[in-house]
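Students often ask why inverse folding is considered easier than folding. One informal answer: many sequences map to the same fold, so there is more than one right answer. In these notes we will look at a single instance of the problem. The structure comes first.
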């Protein structure tokens, strides 16, 4: 009888190809590592995304209802605007903070797995909370650069998005600050923008397909816009960690290519006992 495949051994074989891997191998490695740490990654994602998605959906739906009910009544319109400024905007900002911390936690969890260290969700979040300011600063700088870049004929925004792919791994795994993390990402991405773009595109298409599936299922279950939106997010929630994992693997892949990082040590640490 054939023995069951060992996920750690699969991870070892996949990681050992980093530095010489193509886009397909990197994406495949992301799924391998996700299967290996599925529960931990899913819990880490859910701790942030479920309350953020549910909260923002309910708050936004309330704001839209107030606007619809206001009609042409100036007092009602004023109250609706006040509600949006006092409740919706702070909630959206808080959700961005929570999302960045969650992304940092998943990045730390997966990065440590690649280095042969098993860390739990609590420890990952503990470290991410310690790195909250660098994470937020990094997100703010990258966000501003992308917005300004898209305003300058789109292409600079796309480039800013691509060259910043490894900023979060640099902050979480190497302990870099905002400036150092972005510079580190730029150095790794320089000369490999096509590779980064290809991985980003494949993962985006996968997540887009998950969202379409969610919308199709949600449309057949309910007609309520808020419930339909929440149901549609379920496949994306489950598949979401693949994005962070693929960026971590791409980060390590380029470190191997540029710096000769000892990937054999990483692979051996994840190998069969």
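Output (designed amino acids):
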């Amino acid at each position: 009888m054939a023995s069951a495949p060992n996920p750690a051994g699969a991870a070892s074989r996949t990681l050992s190809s980093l530095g010489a891997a193509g886009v397909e191998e990197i994406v495949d490695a992301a799924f391998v590592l996700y299967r290996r740490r599925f529960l931990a990654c899913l819990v880490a994602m859910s701790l942030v995304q479920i309350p953020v998605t549910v909260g923002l959906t309910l708050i936004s739906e309330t704001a839209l209802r107030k606007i619809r009910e206001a009609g042409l009544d100036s007092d009602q319109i004023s109250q609706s605007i006040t509600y949006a400024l006092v409740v919706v905007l702070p909630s959206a900002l808080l959700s961005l903070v929570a999302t960045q911390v969650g992304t940092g936690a998943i990045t730390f969890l997966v990065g440590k797995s690649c280095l042969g260290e098993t860390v739990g969700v609590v420890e990952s979040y503990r470290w991410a909370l310690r790195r909250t300011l660098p994470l937020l600063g990094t997100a703010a700088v990258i966000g501003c650069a992308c917005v300004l870049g898209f305003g300058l004929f789109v292409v600079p925004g796309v480039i800013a998005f691509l060259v910043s792919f490894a900023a979060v791994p640099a902050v979480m795994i190497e302990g870099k600050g905002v400036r150092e993390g972005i510079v580190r990402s730029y150095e790794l991405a320089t000369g490999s923008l096509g590779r980064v773009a290809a991985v980003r595109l494949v993962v985006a298409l996968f997540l887009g397909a998950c969202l379409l599936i969610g919308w199709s299922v949600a449309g057949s279950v309910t007609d309520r816009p808020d419930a339909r939106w929440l149901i549609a997010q379920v496949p994306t929630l489950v598949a979401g960690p693949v994005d962070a994992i693929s960026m971590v693997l791409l980060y390590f892949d380029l470190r191997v290519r540029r710096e000769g990082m000892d990937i054999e040590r990483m692979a051996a640490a994840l190998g069969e006992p």
